[in-house]
User: What shape does this take?
Amino acid sequence: MPDTPIVVTVDGPAASGKGTIARRLAEHLGFAYLDTGLLYRAVARRVIDGNGDPADSDSAVRAARALEAAELAGEGLRDETVADAASVVAADAGVRAALLDFQRAFAAAPPNAAPGAVLDGRDIGTAVCPDAEVKLFLDASPEVRARRRVRELRERGSNAIYAAVLRDMETRDARDRDRAVAPLAPAEDAFVIDTSTMNADEVFREALAHFDAQTTSRK
Ligand code: CDP
Assistant: This one.
């Protein structure tokens, strides 16, 4: 019988570097990668495009149930307005329930028969894959994260202003941390990395060392 896939969860607040590390780990290990934030962003996009209100539960749940995989590659999902609306739809229990099966199925049977999966988000280690073998939680100070997000947005051609990005990010973080359902928090068994003073290579090395330590019995 083939081994069950190894699941790696990477959670953390906005611009903590989790996407970069999750993608790099997946590439290095030959695992499949799922950016679960895109699911919430695509739900928000659907609601906005239909002139709906992201805070209206019926519209948000309808959008989540109708979501198709192709929409994850859609235009404009990286805009900060979409990120903000994503954190509003993400606080809805019905939306989260509608997206759960897709995420769990991805982890249990990664595409292309990959030997494992890396999922990044807010609640992967706590709610989506609580039994994952390797759990990482990335964090950094709000100022460092806002600087990173400004750089990212400017590289994409938007004229982002630091003070506004910091304010919006703190609002979104608070919404994600304080919501009743699947709030942003490290799992009890997560390995927490504060990336404030680290570069991407250093974070990757720490993450990989933790992966190796957790999975030695597999080898
Ligand atoms: O890239 P960034 O970290 O700024 O955002 P993202 O990971 O794309 O997530 C956008 C929003 O989706 C977050 O602010 C959360 O409200 C929500 N989200 C969530 O609730 N649970 C997840 N597993 C992933 C994202």
The beta strands are 6-11, 32-35, 116-121, 134-139, 191-194.
